Amino acid sequence: MNPGKVVHPDALDAHLRQGSAYRPWEPATRFTYGEDDHRFSRAAARCVGVGKCRGHESGVMCPSYRATGEEEHSTRGRARLLFEMVEGDVITDGWRSATVRDALDLCLACKGCKRDCPVSVDMATYKAEFLYHHYRNRPRPLSHYSMGWLPLWSRAAAAAPRAVNALAHAPGLSRVAARAAGVDPRRPLPSFAPSRFTEAYRPEPTGGCRGRVVLWPDTFDNNFDPHIAHAAAAVLHAAGFDVEVPDRTVCCGLTWISTGQLGVAVRVLHRTLDVLGPHLRVGTPVVVLEPSCAAVFRSDLTDLLPGDEDARRLAQQTHTLGEVLARHAPDWRPPQLPRAALVQQHCHQHAVLGYTHDRDALVTAGVDVEVLDAGCCGLAGNFGFEAGHYDVSVACAEDKLMPAVRQADPGTLVVADGFSCRTQIRDLEPGARPLHSAEVLAAALRGGNGLP
Ligand code: SF4
Ligand code: SF4
What we know:
Radius of gyration: 23 Å
Number of domains: 4
Strand content: 5-15%
Bound molecules: iron/sulfur cluster
Shape: globular
Oligomer: single chain
Number of strands: 7
Helix content: 40-55%
Mean pLDDT: 95
Strand order of the largest sheet: 2-1-3-4
Distance between the termini: 78 Å
Low-confidence stretches: none
Protein backbone atom coordinates (compact mmCIF):
# COMPACT_ATOMS: atom_id res chain seq x y z
CA MET A 1 0.00 0.00 0.00
CA ASN A 2 3.01 2.26 0.43
CA PRO A 3 5.33 2.30 -2.64
CA GLY A 4 9.01 1.89 -1.86
CA LYS A 5 8.46 0.54 1.63
CA VAL A 6 9.63 -3.05 1.55
CA VAL A 7 9.62 -5.03 4.79
CA HIS A 8 10.68 -8.51 5.67
CA PRO A 9 8.47 -9.38 8.61
CA ASP A 10 9.19 -12.21 11.01
CA ALA A 11 7.01 -15.27 10.74
CA LEU A 12 3.66 -14.81 12.44
CA ASP A 13 4.57 -17.24 15.25
CA ALA A 14 8.13 -16.00 15.78
CA HIS A 15 9.01 -14.50 19.21
CA LEU A 16 5.93 -15.90 20.89
CA ARG A 17 6.37 -16.37 24.61
CA GLN A 18 5.00 -19.89 24.31
CA GLY A 19 5.37 -20.76 20.63
CA SER A 20 5.02 -24.22 19.12
CA ALA A 21 8.61 -25.04 20.16
CA TYR A 22 7.95 -24.16 23.83
CA ARG A 23 9.01 -27.14 25.95
CA PRO A 24 9.34 -25.99 29.56
CA TRP A 25 10.97 -27.98 32.33
CA GLU A 26 8.31 -30.05 34.16
CA PRO A 27 9.70 -30.66 37.65
CA ALA A 28 8.18 -33.07 40.18
CA THR A 29 6.42 -31.07 42.91
CA ARG A 30 4.96 -31.42 46.45
CA PHE A 31 1.83 -29.35 45.81
CA THR A 32 -0.54 -30.76 43.19
CA TYR A 33 -1.43 -27.68 41.05
CA GLY A 34 -4.76 -29.28 40.12
CA GLU A 35 -5.97 -26.12 38.39
CA ASP A 36 -2.83 -26.02 36.28
CA ASP A 37 -3.04 -29.49 34.78
CA HIS A 38 -0.77 -30.69 37.65
CA ARG A 39 2.15 -28.87 36.03
CA PHE A 40 4.30 -26.30 37.82
CA SER A 41 5.26 -24.86 34.42
CA ARG A 42 1.64 -23.85 33.88
CA ALA A 43 1.36 -22.28 37.31
CA ALA A 44 4.58 -20.35 36.63
CA ALA A 45 3.11 -19.09 33.35
CA ARG A 46 -0.20 -17.88 34.81
CA CYS A 47 0.71 -14.19 34.99
CA VAL A 48 -0.70 -12.24 32.02
CA GLY A 49 1.36 -9.19 32.85
CA VAL A 50 -1.21 -6.42 33.16
CA GLY A 51 0.30 -5.26 36.44
CA LYS A 52 -2.62 -5.05 38.85
CA CYS A 53 -0.08 -6.22 41.45
CA ARG A 54 1.69 -2.86 41.03
CA GLY A 55 -1.27 -0.96 42.45
CA HIS A 56 -1.28 0.90 45.74
CA GLU A 57 -5.00 1.47 46.19
CA SER A 58 -6.89 -1.37 47.85
CA GLY A 59 -6.85 -5.08 48.59
CA VAL A 60 -3.83 -6.98 49.90
CA MET A 61 -1.72 -7.60 46.75
CA CYS A 62 1.21 -6.87 46.79
CA PRO A 63 2.66 -5.57 50.08
CA SER A 64 6.32 -6.04 49.19
CA TYR A 65 5.90 -4.08 45.94
CA ARG A 66 4.04 -1.34 47.81
CA ALA A 67 6.96 -1.15 50.25
CA THR A 68 9.87 -1.15 47.76
CA GLY A 69 8.36 -0.05 44.43
CA GLU A 70 10.62 -2.59 42.68
CA GLU A 71 9.30 -4.83 39.90
CA GLU A 72 11.36 -7.70 41.29
CA HIS A 73 9.29 -7.48 44.50
CA SER A 74 5.93 -7.51 42.75
CA THR A 75 3.88 -10.63 42.08
CA ARG A 76 4.50 -10.10 38.37
CA GLY A 77 8.28 -9.81 38.80
CA ARG A 78 8.40 -13.05 40.77
CA ALA A 79 6.09 -14.82 38.33
CA ARG A 80 8.34 -13.70 35.48
CA LEU A 81 11.43 -15.16 37.16
CA LEU A 82 9.67 -18.47 37.84
CA PHE A 83 8.65 -18.54 34.17
CA GLU A 84 12.29 -17.95 33.18
CA MET A 85 13.28 -20.76 35.52
CA VAL A 86 11.04 -23.35 33.87
CA GLU A 87 11.83 -22.02 30.40
CA GLY A 88 15.52 -22.53 31.17
CA ASP A 89 17.06 -20.00 28.72
CA VAL A 90 18.04 -17.17 31.04
CA ILE A 91 17.84 -18.94 34.41
CA THR A 92 19.56 -22.24 33.89
CA ASP A 93 20.06 -23.59 37.41
CA GLY A 94 16.42 -24.50 38.14
CA TRP A 95 15.46 -24.82 41.81
CA ARG A 96 19.02 -23.88 42.84
CA SER A 97 18.67 -20.37 41.35
CA ALA A 98 19.84 -17.65 43.74
CA THR A 99 18.13 -15.02 41.54
CA VAL A 100 14.72 -16.60 42.06
CA ARG A 101 15.41 -17.17 45.77
CA ASP A 102 16.32 -13.51 46.26
CA ALA A 103 13.17 -12.31 44.46
CA LEU A 104 11.03 -14.61 46.59
CA ASP A 105 12.78 -13.56 49.80
CA LEU A 106 10.60 -10.47 50.29
CA CYS A 107 7.35 -12.29 49.40
CA LEU A 108 5.37 -12.25 52.66
CA ALA A 109 3.36 -15.36 51.65
CA CYS A 110 0.28 -13.26 52.44
CA LYS A 111 -1.72 -14.99 49.66
CA GLY A 112 -2.99 -11.56 48.59
CA CYS A 113 -2.31 -12.45 44.96
CA LYS A 114 -4.27 -15.71 45.21
CA ARG A 115 -7.36 -13.55 45.74
CA ASP A 116 -6.60 -10.17 44.15
CA CYS A 117 -4.74 -11.18 40.96
CA PRO A 118 -7.20 -11.61 38.05
CA VAL A 119 -5.67 -15.00 37.19
CA SER A 120 -5.05 -16.08 40.81
CA VAL A 121 -1.27 -16.30 40.78
CA ASP A 122 -0.61 -18.05 44.12
CA MET A 123 2.90 -16.92 44.94
CA ALA A 124 2.81 -18.12 48.57
CA THR A 125 2.43 -21.70 47.32
CA TYR A 126 5.11 -21.28 44.63
CA LYS A 127 7.45 -19.83 47.25
CA ALA A 128 6.94 -22.79 49.60
CA GLU A 129 7.50 -25.18 46.69
CA PHE A 130 10.66 -23.33 45.61
CA LEU A 131 12.13 -23.21 49.13
CA TYR A 132 11.50 -26.93 49.55
CA HIS A 133 13.57 -27.80 46.47
CA HIS A 134 16.12 -25.00 46.84
CA TYR A 135 17.21 -26.08 50.33
CA ARG A 136 16.67 -29.80 49.92
CA ASN A 137 19.59 -31.65 51.55
CA ARG A 138 21.36 -28.33 52.17
CA PRO A 139 21.71 -26.06 55.22
CA ARG A 140 18.82 -23.61 55.57
CA PRO A 141 18.64 -20.08 56.97
CA LEU A 142 18.63 -20.05 60.79
CA SER A 143 15.04 -18.80 60.89
CA HIS A 144 13.84 -22.00 59.20
CA TYR A 145 15.15 -23.98 62.19
CA SER A 146 13.90 -21.52 64.84
CA MET A 147 10.55 -20.22 63.57
CA GLY A 148 9.94 -23.09 61.17
CA TRP A 149 10.09 -25.52 64.10
CA LEU A 150 8.25 -23.17 66.50
CA PRO A 151 5.51 -25.71 67.40
CA LEU A 152 8.18 -28.11 68.66
CA TRP A 153 10.18 -25.46 70.56
CA SER A 154 6.93 -24.19 72.11
CA ARG A 155 6.15 -27.65 73.36
CA ALA A 156 9.60 -27.88 74.94
CA ALA A 157 9.28 -24.36 76.43
CA ALA A 158 5.99 -25.36 78.08
CA ALA A 159 8.03 -27.34 80.62
CA ALA A 160 9.48 -24.09 82.07
CA PRO A 161 7.92 -21.06 80.34
CA ARG A 162 9.01 -18.51 82.96
CA ALA A 163 12.65 -19.56 82.74
CA VAL A 164 12.56 -19.51 78.93
CA ASN A 165 11.00 -16.01 78.95
CA ALA A 166 13.56 -14.75 81.45
CA LEU A 167 16.43 -16.04 79.31
CA ALA A 168 14.95 -14.79 76.02
CA HIS A 169 14.32 -11.29 77.41
CA ALA A 170 17.39 -10.88 79.62
CA PRO A 171 19.36 -7.72 78.72
CA GLY A 172 22.27 -8.70 76.52
CA LEU A 173 21.03 -12.25 76.09
CA SER A 174 17.97 -11.30 74.02
CA ARG A 175 20.13 -9.94 71.18
CA VAL A 176 22.25 -13.08 71.21
CA ALA A 177 19.11 -15.27 71.23
CA ALA A 178 17.61 -13.25 68.36
CA ARG A 179 20.78 -13.51 66.29
CA ALA A 180 21.05 -17.26 66.92
CA ALA A 181 17.43 -17.66 65.79
CA GLY A 182 17.84 -15.54 62.64
CA VAL A 183 15.48 -12.93 64.12
CA ASP A 184 15.94 -9.17 63.67
CA PRO A 185 17.12 -7.84 67.06
CA ARG A 186 14.65 -4.92 66.81
CA ARG A 187 11.80 -7.42 67.02
CA PRO A 188 10.82 -8.29 70.63
CA LEU A 189 10.41 -12.05 71.09
CA PRO A 190 6.89 -13.03 72.18
CA SER A 191 6.49 -14.39 75.71
CA PHE A 192 5.24 -17.89 76.48
CA ALA A 193 2.16 -17.97 78.70
CA PRO A 194 2.56 -19.51 82.19
CA SER A 195 0.28 -22.38 81.21
CA ARG A 196 -1.02 -23.63 77.89
CA PHE A 197 -4.70 -23.71 77.02
CA THR A 198 -4.61 -27.47 76.44
CA GLU A 199 -3.24 -28.05 79.95
CA ALA A 200 -5.61 -25.68 81.75
CA TYR A 201 -8.87 -26.26 79.89
CA ARG A 202 -11.51 -28.44 81.56
CA PRO A 203 -14.50 -29.23 79.33
CA GLU A 204 -17.91 -28.44 80.83
CA PRO A 205 -20.79 -30.34 79.22
CA THR A 206 -23.70 -28.02 78.40
CA GLY A 207 -26.29 -30.64 77.64
CA GLY A 208 -25.22 -30.08 74.07
CA CYS A 209 -28.27 -28.53 72.37
CA ARG A 210 -25.95 -27.59 69.46
CA GLY A 211 -23.78 -30.70 69.58
CA ARG A 212 -20.01 -30.99 69.85
CA VAL A 213 -17.23 -28.89 68.35
CA VAL A 214 -13.48 -29.42 68.47
CA LEU A 215 -11.63 -26.24 69.44
CA TRP A 216 -8.32 -26.26 67.57
CA PRO A 217 -5.37 -25.43 69.88
CA ASP A 218 -3.09 -23.64 67.43
CA THR A 219 0.52 -23.02 68.45
CA PHE A 220 0.05 -19.26 68.82
CA ASP A 221 -3.13 -19.17 70.92
CA ASN A 222 -2.18 -22.28 72.87
CA ASN A 223 1.31 -21.13 73.87
CA PHE A 224 1.30 -17.33 73.75
CA ASP A 225 -2.34 -16.17 74.03
CA PRO A 226 -4.24 -18.99 75.79
CA HIS A 227 -6.74 -16.43 77.16
CA ILE A 228 -8.09 -16.17 73.59
CA ALA A 229 -8.78 -19.91 73.39
CA HIS A 230 -10.44 -19.74 76.85
CA ALA A 231 -12.57 -16.80 75.61
CA ALA A 232 -13.61 -18.77 72.50
CA ALA A 233 -14.50 -21.79 74.64
CA ALA A 234 -16.69 -19.54 76.85
CA VAL A 235 -18.48 -18.13 73.78
CA LEU A 236 -19.06 -21.57 72.25
CA HIS A 237 -20.26 -22.87 75.58
CA ALA A 238 -22.69 -19.95 75.99
CA ALA A 239 -24.00 -20.60 72.47
CA GLY A 240 -24.81 -24.19 73.46
CA PHE A 241 -21.90 -26.23 72.13
CA ASP A 242 -19.96 -28.93 73.95
CA VAL A 243 -16.34 -27.95 73.44
CA GLU A 244 -13.62 -30.57 73.16
CA VAL A 245 -9.92 -30.19 72.53
CA PRO A 246 -7.79 -32.88 70.86
CA ASP A 247 -6.36 -35.32 73.41
CA ARG A 248 -2.92 -35.44 71.77
CA THR A 249 -0.60 -32.81 70.29
CA VAL A 250 -1.76 -31.56 66.90
CA CYS A 251 -0.45 -28.99 64.44
CA CYS A 252 -1.45 -27.67 61.01
CA GLY A 253 2.17 -27.54 59.80
CA LEU A 254 1.92 -23.85 58.85
CA THR A 255 5.42 -22.87 59.97
CA TRP A 256 6.95 -25.77 58.05
CA ILE A 257 4.91 -24.89 54.96
CA SER A 258 5.88 -21.21 54.99
CA THR A 259 9.57 -22.12 55.31
CA GLY A 260 9.32 -24.73 52.56
CA GLN A 261 9.91 -27.75 54.83
CA LEU A 262 7.14 -29.59 53.06
CA GLY A 263 8.23 -33.14 53.90
CA VAL A 264 7.93 -32.36 57.64
CA ALA A 265 4.65 -30.50 57.04
CA VAL A 266 3.15 -33.57 55.36
CA ARG A 267 4.22 -35.83 58.26
CA VAL A 268 2.75 -33.36 60.77
CA LEU A 269 -0.54 -33.21 58.84
CA HIS A 270 -0.80 -37.02 58.68
CA ARG A 271 -0.32 -37.19 62.44
CA THR A 272 -2.97 -34.51 62.98
CA LEU A 273 -5.44 -36.36 60.78
CA ASP A 274 -4.84 -39.53 62.82
CA VAL A 275 -5.81 -37.61 65.99
CA LEU A 276 -8.79 -35.78 64.46
CA GLY A 277 -10.03 -38.70 62.33
CA PRO A 278 -12.70 -39.99 64.78
CA HIS A 279 -14.15 -36.45 65.12
CA LEU A 280 -14.03 -35.81 61.39
CA ARG A 281 -15.78 -39.05 60.45
CA VAL A 282 -18.85 -38.15 62.54
CA GLY A 283 -19.01 -34.65 61.09
CA THR A 284 -17.86 -32.65 64.15
CA PRO A 285 -17.01 -29.04 63.22
CA VAL A 286 -13.43 -27.95 63.97
CA VAL A 287 -13.22 -24.34 65.17
CA VAL A 288 -9.93 -22.66 64.29
CA LEU A 289 -9.16 -19.26 65.83
CA GLU A 290 -5.93 -18.45 64.00
CA PRO A 291 -6.78 -17.51 60.37
CA SER A 292 -3.52 -18.79 58.89
CA CYS A 293 -4.08 -22.26 60.42
CA ALA A 294 -7.66 -22.29 59.12
CA ALA A 295 -6.36 -21.32 55.68
CA VAL A 296 -3.94 -24.28 55.71
CA PHE A 297 -6.85 -26.65 56.36
CA ARG A 298 -9.11 -25.02 53.78
CA SER A 299 -6.54 -24.72 51.04
CA ASP A 300 -3.03 -26.19 51.42
CA LEU A 301 -4.05 -29.43 53.12
CA THR A 302 -5.85 -31.09 50.22
CA ASP A 303 -3.16 -29.78 47.87
CA LEU A 304 -0.45 -31.51 49.90
CA LEU A 305 -2.47 -34.68 50.60
CA PRO A 306 -4.59 -35.21 47.47
CA GLY A 307 -7.04 -38.09 47.68
CA ASP A 308 -6.94 -38.32 51.50
CA GLU A 309 -10.56 -38.52 52.68
CA ASP A 310 -9.86 -37.22 56.19
CA ALA A 311 -8.00 -34.26 54.67
CA ARG A 312 -11.03 -33.51 52.51
CA ARG A 313 -13.29 -33.77 55.58
CA LEU A 314 -11.08 -31.45 57.62
CA ALA A 315 -11.08 -28.89 54.78
CA GLN A 316 -14.89 -28.97 54.78
CA GLN A 317 -15.35 -29.06 58.55
CA THR A 318 -12.93 -26.25 59.40
CA HIS A 319 -14.80 -23.19 60.70
CA THR A 320 -13.78 -19.86 62.08
CA LEU A 321 -15.60 -18.78 65.25
CA GLY A 322 -17.99 -16.57 63.27
CA GLU A 323 -18.66 -19.36 60.77
CA VAL A 324 -19.55 -21.98 63.37
CA LEU A 325 -21.94 -19.55 65.08
CA ALA A 326 -23.56 -18.58 61.76
CA ARG A 327 -23.96 -22.15 60.49
CA HIS A 328 -24.68 -24.11 63.65
CA ALA A 329 -26.20 -21.53 66.03
CA PRO A 330 -27.83 -18.99 63.71
CA ASP A 331 -30.47 -18.00 66.29
CA TRP A 332 -28.00 -17.39 69.14
CA ARG A 333 -27.68 -13.73 70.19
CA PRO A 334 -24.94 -12.64 72.57
CA PRO A 335 -25.64 -9.83 75.07
CA GLN A 336 -25.26 -6.39 73.46
CA LEU A 337 -21.93 -4.58 73.57
CA PRO A 338 -22.35 -1.06 72.17
CA ARG A 339 -18.72 -0.36 71.27
CA ALA A 340 -16.98 0.72 68.06
CA ALA A 341 -14.32 -1.60 66.62
CA LEU A 342 -11.65 -1.14 63.99
CA VAL A 343 -10.91 -4.52 62.39
CA GLN A 344 -7.67 -5.56 60.71
CA GLN A 345 -8.63 -8.52 58.57
CA HIS A 346 -5.88 -11.16 58.34
CA CYS A 347 -4.56 -11.61 54.77
CA HIS A 348 -5.61 -15.25 54.79
CA GLN A 349 -9.13 -14.24 55.84
CA HIS A 350 -9.13 -11.93 52.84
CA ALA A 351 -7.65 -14.51 50.45
CA VAL A 352 -9.02 -17.88 51.55
CA LEU A 353 -11.58 -17.80 54.36
CA GLY A 354 -13.68 -14.68 53.84
CA TYR A 355 -14.64 -12.41 56.72
CA THR A 356 -18.43 -12.03 56.42
CA HIS A 357 -19.48 -14.40 59.22
CA ASP A 358 -16.83 -13.15 61.65
CA ARG A 359 -17.92 -9.58 61.01
CA ASP A 360 -21.56 -10.60 61.48
CA ALA A 361 -20.77 -12.24 64.83
CA LEU A 362 -19.48 -8.89 66.13
CA VAL A 363 -22.38 -6.97 64.59
CA THR A 364 -24.86 -9.38 66.22
CA ALA A 365 -23.30 -8.42 69.55
CA GLY A 366 -24.07 -4.76 68.83
CA VAL A 367 -20.50 -3.80 67.93
CA ASP A 368 -20.14 -0.99 65.38
CA VAL A 369 -17.60 -2.62 63.05
CA GLU A 370 -15.31 -0.86 60.60
CA VAL A 371 -13.25 -3.32 58.55
CA LEU A 372 -10.06 -1.64 57.36
CA ASP A 373 -8.86 -1.91 53.77
CA ALA A 374 -5.27 -1.67 54.98
CA GLY A 375 -3.63 -4.65 53.26
CA CYS A 376 -1.16 -6.91 55.02
CA CYS A 377 0.07 -6.03 58.53
CA GLY A 378 3.59 -6.81 57.33
CA LEU A 379 4.50 -9.34 60.02
CA ALA A 380 3.02 -12.33 58.19
CA GLY A 381 4.17 -15.18 60.44
CA ASN A 382 7.92 -15.66 60.36
CA PHE A 383 8.45 -13.01 57.65
CA GLY A 384 8.55 -9.87 59.79
CA PHE A 385 10.68 -11.53 62.46
CA GLU A 386 13.38 -12.68 60.03
CA ALA A 387 16.63 -10.77 59.88
CA GLY A 388 16.68 -8.56 56.79
CA HIS A 389 12.89 -8.11 56.65
CA TYR A 390 12.28 -5.56 59.41
CA ASP A 391 12.20 -2.43 57.27
CA VAL A 392 9.83 -3.88 54.66
CA SER A 393 7.67 -5.38 57.41
CA VAL A 394 7.31 -2.01 59.17
CA ALA A 395 6.77 -0.14 55.87
CA CYS A 396 3.81 -2.46 55.09
CA ALA A 397 2.22 -1.72 58.48
CA GLU A 398 2.88 2.02 58.29
CA ASP A 399 1.25 2.24 54.84
CA LYS A 400 -2.35 2.24 56.13
CA LEU A 401 -2.80 0.02 59.19
CA MET A 402 -0.82 1.89 61.83
CA PRO A 403 -2.04 5.37 60.84
CA ALA A 404 -5.63 4.04 61.16
CA VAL A 405 -4.91 2.53 64.59
CA ARG A 406 -3.31 5.77 65.82
CA GLN A 407 -6.15 7.95 64.49
CA ALA A 408 -8.93 5.80 65.99
CA ASP A 409 -11.06 7.39 68.73
CA PRO A 410 -9.77 6.48 72.18
CA GLY A 411 -12.75 4.22 73.01
CA THR A 412 -12.52 2.23 69.77
CA LEU A 413 -11.57 -1.44 70.09
CA VAL A 414 -8.85 -2.71 67.76
CA VAL A 415 -9.72 -6.22 66.59
CA ALA A 416 -7.34 -8.56 64.76
CA ASP A 417 -7.86 -12.33 64.68
CA GLY A 418 -4.32 -13.02 63.45
CA PHE A 419 -1.49 -13.46 65.96
CA SER A 420 0.85 -11.72 63.52
CA CYS A 421 -1.44 -8.70 63.13
CA ARG A 422 -1.83 -8.31 66.90
CA THR A 423 1.92 -8.66 67.43
CA GLN A 424 2.73 -6.09 64.74
CA ILE A 425 0.23 -3.57 66.17
CA ARG A 426 1.60 -4.03 69.71
CA ASP A 427 5.22 -3.78 68.53
CA LEU A 428 4.66 -0.54 66.62
CA GLU A 429 2.20 1.09 69.02
CA PRO A 430 2.98 -0.19 72.52
CA GLY A 431 -0.14 1.49 73.99
CA ALA A 432 -2.50 -0.45 71.70
CA ARG A 433 -4.29 -3.53 72.98
CA PRO A 434 -5.50 -5.47 69.94
CA LEU A 435 -8.09 -8.18 70.60
CA HIS A 436 -9.23 -11.38 68.93
CA SER A 437 -12.96 -11.28 68.12
CA ALA A 438 -13.41 -14.19 70.57
CA GLU A 439 -12.27 -11.85 73.36
CA VAL A 440 -14.82 -9.23 72.28
CA LEU A 441 -17.69 -11.75 72.23
CA ALA A 442 -16.60 -13.21 75.58
CA ALA A 443 -16.52 -9.68 77.04
CA ALA A 444 -20.09 -9.16 75.79
CA LEU A 445 -21.07 -12.18 77.93
CA ARG A 446 -19.54 -10.38 80.96
CA GLY A 447 -21.31 -7.09 80.25
CA GLY A 448 -18.22 -5.59 78.63
CA ASN A 449 -15.92 -6.14 81.60
CA GLY A 450 -12.23 -6.53 80.89
CA LEU A 451 -12.16 -4.58 77.62
CA PRO A 452 -9.68 -1.75 77.09
S1 SF4 B 1 -1.96 -8.97 38.78
FE1 SF4 B 1 -1.51 -11.15 38.40
S2 SF4 B 1 -1.64 -11.39 36.16
FE2 SF4 B 1 -1.54 -9.20 36.57
S3 SF4 B 1 0.68 -8.72 36.36
FE3 SF4 B 1 0.28 -9.11 38.55
S4 SF4 B 1 0.70 -11.31 38.81
FE4 SF4 B 1 0.49 -10.93 36.61
S1 SF4 C 1 1.96 -13.70 48.45
FE1 SF4 C 1 1.68 -11.51 49.02
S2 SF4 C 1 3.78 -10.65 49.04
FE2 SF4 C 1 3.87 -12.62 47.92
S3 SF4 C 1 3.64 -12.03 45.77
FE3 SF4 C 1 1.56 -12.55 46.55
S4 SF4 C 1 0.71 -10.56 47.22
FE4 SF4 C 1 2.94 -10.26 46.99
